[in-house]
Amino acid sequence: MEVDVRSLVRMGKILACPVVLAVVLSWAGDAGWETGAALAADSTAKPPTQQAPPRAPHGAGGAVAGKKVVEVGEFTATIPELTAEFAYLPPEQLRRLHDDDSAARIFALDYYGSLLFGHDAEARGLYERNPGFRSAVAAEGRRMVALVYLRDMGREEYKPTDVEIEQFYALHKERLCQKPARYRLARLGVVSGKKAGEAERKAAQERLAAMQKRLEAGDAFADVATSDSDLEGRMPGGEVGWLTDRELQGAAGLERITGLAAGERTEPIVTARGQEIYAMLERDEARLLTFDECKAPVERSLVRQFNREIRLRRMDEIAIAAGASMNIDAVIEAGRAVPRPKDP
Predict the structure, then answer these.
(1) C-beta neighbour count of 140 within 10 angstroms
(2) pTM recorded for the entire structure
(3) Domain around 199
(4) Do 275 and 304 belong together in one domain?
(5) Residue 189 near residue 206, CB atoms below 8 Å
(6) Is the distance from CB of 267 to CB of 214 less than 8 angstroms?
(7) C-alpha dihedral over 179, 184, 189, 195, to 10 degrees?
(8) Quick check: is 34 in a domain?
(9) How many domains does the chain have?
């Protein structure tokens, strides 16, 4: 994706970036400030109807690509312009926008609302009543620009070479490239609660004994689980799928379960549900991944380390070139002069 930082501060006004404005106005509202939402109650978008319209294909939008689809004051945007801006939304928000029609409609209305409130804030004197808020909005925008700036530099100027990635793998493979053991398990059993009476416990024990007898006679574990077990599996035949040691942590009889060879089963294990028998269908032993298998996560870890180094190095370079300076103690003092919020 080609980075255009100007799209983050469109028209030279940080308020023209609703992605930033929505974050700042939400934060300001939580702090108890008087925002455009409270001041512009008469500026409302048409609410959605009860029945959502048919979903348009992605990229169509039901409008001509070059036509202005949003107009608020001096701000206008076409579908391609909005698409370029929305590329900077958090991944989780983009997934909801694609997958959930209701969430998509709420997003569009929130976007429109942030534009309206931002437009009305100037006229209502929001900034004059809240000294420092304009600078806070600009600072939020600068943080977003800095994130994209560093990501772009890391991708283009400081991309690690294959040799560097291999060296990093050699140094950190034990930490980054350990594949844990996995177990494909199935289970069957009987359920008997803690408050079960003597008759109920006896009946459960008899049912379990009958299942064991079938297993010893050679009946398939899956057939016995399907026909006789009280337990529900995630899949047919009592199968619970692939599980790791971490996912099995705390399970009754853990060592007996993980110690099984493929094709073996445990004796009955007393659990909080009743009594259960586990079968090991397959097992995948723990091992160290090869360089080719682990290259992607190793590269991501190396890039994160590069980024930390790049940030400090690049800050020094820019500060020298721009003749910039900062008194760090004074900045901290200014922050601590703001009353400390109460703990939740």
Answers:
(1) 18
(2) 0.46
(3) 181-285
(4) no
(5) no
(6) no
(7) 30
(8) yes
(9) 3
